[in-house]
Amino acid sequence: MSCVHKNQLLIVATLSVVMLLSIPATASAFRVLGQVINGTTGLPVSAAIIKVINPSGGMLTEHEVETIDDLGHYEVDDLDEQNPVYLLRVSYEGVNYTELIRYHGHDSVTIDIKVYDRTSSWDDIQVSIPHVVVSRSLDTLSIEKFIQINNNTSPPKTIYDQESQFVFYLPEDAIRINSLSVQSLGIPLPTTPVPTEEPGFYRIDHPIKPGVTDVALSFDLPYQDSEYHYSEPLKYGLQQMTIIARDPTIMVTSETTAVGDAQDFHGFKAYKLAGLTTEKPLTLTFTGGSRVTRAAPQIFTVPNRTQRLSIATMLLLVLVLVGFLILEVRRNPSPDLQKQALRGQREELLGQLARLDDLYKTGTISEQLYKIKRSELVNALAQIYYRIEFDGGVTSQEVSDQEGAAGV
Fold first, then answer.
1. Quick count: other Cβ atoms within 10 Å of Cβ 113?
2. Tally of domains within the chain
3. Domain boundary among 242, 260, 288
4. What is the radius of gyration, based on Cα positions, of the chain?
5. Do 21 and 100 belong to one domain?
6. Is the domain of 329 the same as that of 269?
7. What is the pLDDT of residues 120-172, one digit of tens each?
8. If you ran DSSP here, which 8-state letter would residue 351 be given?
9. Strand partners, 101
10. Most CB atoms closer than 10 Å: which of 11, 103, 175, 299?
11. Are residues 146 and 249 in the same domain?
12. Mind listing the pLDDT tens digit for each residue in 321-366?
């Protein structure tokens, strides 16, 4: 239906890599059963079509069944235990709802799947930007925004309508978009910006389902004079925002927005903003920063030597991998070889995310630090997906071309 659904085939397929360790030693069949429920009305969906998709088999639909009674029950037999993961998908009112199927050693797995009525109202929606990460490389200022859209509709409904899709702002002098993604099943799903009739604003063709939807946006701005004046008309009121400067010599000030004093945060500088409303634009001035790209500081604090070594090894692997990727791209300009190198980096980043999750679950790192570091890794992963799918990102010229093609 949209570019999002096409890209989902690429992204969800990587789930088979993450789940490989769960493959059982012997092969036999199991079944999945459950109920399709309308989460808006609480009533069963009696005429639903359920698809079981195999990511490791090229995203092929292996089974397609209908509900077997008026209570929305379904049954799917003969699922192979050797497959690390299946996807259970139901389409309702033009929106796909997907659940993971993982074998746990039993003959059957019960999964109820909820679908929702659609709406175009944003009355019960809250948008927050927990943090914005700013960094400098030579004469470029990179902005990484992490956006959370909380759908609190009651009764719960999915927002999906062209006139009510989530929109974001991109400065007219932006050099390029490095990545734009929406998380689906924990994996960043790359998407392209769709121009709106309002200059500087772009929409995302993705349904906003009940709960939290995470959006990650990264773009570059010109920074030749070590200064940039940023101004963004706010479409959504924000309670607060934290700007994190990877280079502590980057200063953030504003004449119209309340900016708190810079706080040291594990080698970064953190600035808290408050009082952000739609009544006035967000205006910021970025100054300073080293022209030399800084390596991310090792921000983990761990209680023992073994955990320190594991984290150091993790960070070292990332640095080695990035260096390998750069060498591969330089030695092999072929697009196919570049994508092969990018896929290798993608797999490593997925592993880094898994190890980071383990460190947090064991109490090795704090929740705040975990969220920031995980956002960085997810954004890096989103950029890799974006480059694989769109061959290097979207330049400002390509955005202009899209505007022309859309007749805006």
1. 21
2. 3
3. 288
4. 23
5. yes
6. no
7. 999 989 999 988 999 999 999 999 999 999 999 999 999 998 788 999 999 99
8. H
9. 86
10. 11
11. yes
12. 444 444 444 444 455 656 666 666 777 777 777 777 766 776 666 7
